[in-house]
Structure formats: structure tokens, C-alpha cells
Structure of Glycosyltransferase 2-like domain-containing protein:
Amino acid sequence: MTRVLRPKEIKTKLGKTQVEHDQSFEAELEIDVHELFTGFDKFKDGSDNIRFEELVEIFLNNARCLNNRVTRLASLIALGLAIVYGVVLYFSHIPRLETPSELTYITNDFTENSYDLPPRLTSQVGLKNQSLHGRGSIELSVVIPCYNETNRLGKMLDEATEYLNKNYKENYEILIVDDGSSDGTDDYALRKATQLKLAPHILRVIKLSSNRGKGGAVTHGLLHSRGRLALFADADGATKFSDVKKLMDWLNQLGNKPGVAIGSRSHMVDTDAVVKRSFIRNFLMYGLHTLVYIFGIRAIQDTQCGFKMFNQESISKVFPHMHTERWIFDVEVLLLCEIQGIAMQEVPVNWQEIDGSKIDLAKDSIGMAIDLVVTRIAYLIGTYKLNECGRLSKKNQ
């Protein structure tokens, strides 16, 4: 037989300590809809000497107990969300504005002159009008982010220019984005351009006034590129440069639709190039891939390969909105593509491990994990928006 709590029982129970109340919470809420109707039936037929006022008091007191618990739960949830929001806000990133010198480049013309870059590409300017600034005037831009790369850049440029001169003659540009190097990477690149007999303005060196990170350097270069298509490639030359044709072939199938061709090493998982890497490096790599999968990038297996190609349509939709400037920026690129429905395709490339990596496995792995979590949540809760990192909002004020 179900039981209705008497008013006296309720008063006794409400007199207990908070701990006792919590422990016996389920017992205190024995009344439910069925019990209420049972009490109501007894009230109607006069059995058990129950009065209507007692029935109402029983219901209200039990409801009050339930309401207190729900209120506490709601408060905890609100506090948790506030903490998450605060943490995301603390770790979120808004890229700094470019300095005047970063909007210029130097080239191997044996002068000390600097030249203006094309204006920064924005998401609000139609690409049909960009030819006024030289966009689309050449076939391919190659953006190479560099930080103290005098020991590795030369070999990469040898391979790249050999392929580009053979297939594109002078219908290309190489943008060396010197990310605050201290080893003379900018001067080395100019000397290398002269050694390779490149005409002035084919190789352009953009010197960032301070280190921004690989993502910041890539973003800066792509937003000021002129090519119909643009590739960013790591300075170490780990990816066989001639594989650029594979990426280009896929992008050309899209016509004027935005798209991203992603160089991928996923087919090399069981090869010596990956198997012979250190245990800790492979462990961290798989850990990162797991996090990336959990946070929504499931169609792409290799997010971190430094060999990706974009058309101008995808550059204008993705890179004006980029927040992340460190190692995990590749994931934000793919997130922005998914959010906007931009076509993506992994393309197998030939790759080999090159010594001299700038990654500090312990420190940077932690930073990458934090950036990944913050970036994903920031887009979910609206901290990051498609407003060019606040630039559009400021223009509309």
C-alpha cells in the first residue's frame, strides 16, 4: 500500500540537519502523483480521517523539497558553465593587427627598397574585384612559414624552384614569411633567390616584427597572396614538392567553388617513416588525433601535414576568421571549413622525417591540447565567430 506523508512527519523530517535531509531525500519524496490521488480518494470517501488542507500541505511540502534540490542542481550547472566560459575566454586568442612593415616585402633586386603587399583579403570583398590588386594574376602562390630556418630552407627551395620553373616558368610566387627569426633567415632567402637566378619579385620575403607562430605566419602569407591557388608548405621540405600537382588536380575539379586539398600521410602509418619515430612522438601523435576526432574532425585523418592547398575562394572564407596562431591552427582551418560547408579532400603525398623540428614535445603537446579544446568550445559557445576576429564588428560600430 502506498503511503502519504503526514504534516507532522514532514515537519519532523524538515527539522533534520541538511546532511540527514540529503541522505533521506528519496524517502522524503515518497509522495508522487499516484500517492496524491490515493490521498484525494481517501479525502473524498472520508477514510483515514484526512482533511483536504492536510492533503494540500503534504503536496506543497514535498514539492518544496524537490524545488530546493532542482535549484541547487541548476546553480551548480550555471556555475560550471560560467567556469568553462571563463577558462575559454582566458585562453582564447585574438591575433594582433599587422604593423606597417609587415604589409611590405623585400626581394632580390639588390636594393634596400620594400614594396607593398596586395591588401589583406577579407571575407566581404568580392573576388571578381581582386584582380585590381593582382589576385589571380599568377597561377600559384607558395607560402613558406619560417622561424630560424637557415639550415633547412635551402634544400626545400632547390626542390621547389626546380619544379616550379619547369611547370610554371614565372607564373608563380614564393612568399617567405619570416616569423621573427634571429638567425638571418630573411637575408639567407634573398641570397638563395639570387643563387637560383630567380627574377625579382618571384621570391618575396615578409618579415614579421615579432614571432606569431606558424599559424600566424601562414595566415598572414595567404591573406596577401596573389595566386589563383595557394599552397602552404613547411620549410623543412619533408613533403615531396612535386606532389603539388595532385593537390592542384583535385582543386581544379571544383571550378570556382571553395575547396581545400589536404596533403595526407595517413597511408604511411605502417611505413618506416612513421614506425621508426620515437615512441613518445607516435604516442603524442595518436593522442592528438584522438582529441581531434572527439572534437568533431572525423572526415580527415591527417590534420597536421604541412602541405595544404587552397583556392582564393576558400582563403577568403577561412583565413580572415582565424584565431589560432600556434601549432594547432590546422584544426581551426578544418573546423571553419566544416562550419561553412567548404569541400575538403585528403590527397596522399610522399613524406619523410627531417631533423631539426622546432616542436618541444612536452611543452607544445600540452599547448596543442589546450588550444584544441579551447578552439572547439569557443566556436560552440560563440566566443569565436565568423566576424574576422572582431574586425567586422568594429567596422559596423
About this structure: Residues 7-91 form one domain. The beta strands are 104-105, 115-116, 138-146, 172-178, 203-207, 227-233, 259-264, 307-311, 343-348. The chain has two domains: 7-91, 100-396.
